[in-house]
Structure formats: C-alpha cells, structure tokens
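# nightly structure sweep
# worker-07 picked up a monomer target from the shared queue
# config: single-sequence mode, recycle default, output format = structure tokens
# input follows
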Amino acid sequence: MRSEVDAYLATLRANGGAMPEDLVELRGAYAGAVRMAAEQFPAPKLVERSWAECRTPDGDLRVLVQRPVEARTPALLYFHGGGFVLADPEATEFATANLALASGATVLSVDYRLAPEHPYPA
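# output follows
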C-alpha cells in the first residue's frame, strides 16, 4: 500500500501537481480547495445552521448543527473524512446539509482533534 501511495505522489510531482509535503501547507491547500468548492456549490439552506460546543476532558470541540425544515429523527452524528489529519466540518458542509435534507435528521458534524498533534484516542 505504501508503495502505491509513493508512486501516486511521484506521478503528481512529475506532472507539476505535487501535493505539499508539509502538514501545515497541506492543510492550507485543502482548506483553500474547500473554500473554492463552497463558492461553486453552496450548502442548501436549512432552518438551522449553528455552532455548539461539546465539552471533553481534553478540551472543547466545535460541533456544526444543521437541521432541516422538519426534523423527523432526533439526530445523526457525523465525523468528517480527512484521514484524521485533514478537514473540518466546513469541508463537508455541502454533504452534511444535503444529508440533513435527505434524511430529515438534524446532523451534528464534529470538529474533532487532528493527528499528529493529537494522537489517538484524543
């Protein structure tokens, strides 16, 4: 698996589309791409789009709350992708807003702590 990843990254570099190797640069590039996508594909309008806090022993976490017009189920807890290294609730807001509309559920998208700064189980 590692050799496949290395080969993919080598191909990107050869084609002038190398991904940043520095984690801070990679997160910045990812956030920029998410902002550009959000401008082209804004999240659907919902009755509620707000932020809440979830208290944990290791500190508070932000939680994006998205509720459709008529919430039919209590809630759906959503953990964004990004390999536990990238992303945040804003990165998946389009998807979670559509999930709220399609399911009728209130979707809670957790802004969990990212690795490597916060190793498992933080």
